[in-house]
Each structure stands twice: as C-alpha cells, then as structure tokens.
UniProtKB/TrEMBL annotation:
It is found in: Cell membrane. It comes from the Bacteria. Its main location: membrane. Keywords: Cell membrane, Membrane, Transmembrane, Transmembrane helix. This is Cardiolipin synthase N-terminal domain-containing protein. One of its GO terms (cellular component) is plasma membrane. Residues 15-57 form the Cardiolipin synthase N-terminal domain. It is a multi-pass membrane protein. InterPro entries: CLS_N. The chain crosses the membrane at residues 6-24, 36-55.
Amino acid sequence: MGIEVGGLLGLIWLIIVVWAIVKVAKSSAGGLAKLLWILVLLFFPLLGLIVWFLLGPKG
C-alpha cells in the first residue's frame, strides 16, 4: 500500500514540476531567465518550485 501512495504522490509532484516548467517556457521572461528557472526547477524540484512560485516570472 505504501508504494502505491508514494507512486501517486510522485506522479502528482512530477505533474506540478512539468506544469511549472511549461509556465516558465510560455512566460514573457528573457531567454536566459527562462533557461535558469528551468534548470533550477529540474535540479532542485522542491526548493525551485517554492522559489519560482514566490519570485518567478508572472504571465
């Protein structure tokens, strides 16, 4: 049972991170800023997502 719950939570987390990356890619930020945000989200998923949510490009 624990593996199933962990797998589901992992899948949800992956979807959230992919959504954030798509939002960054579609934002009006410059190319270098987009690249840096995407790298932060890929290499530091938890911390990167929190920082992106608070300080990332809007719109």
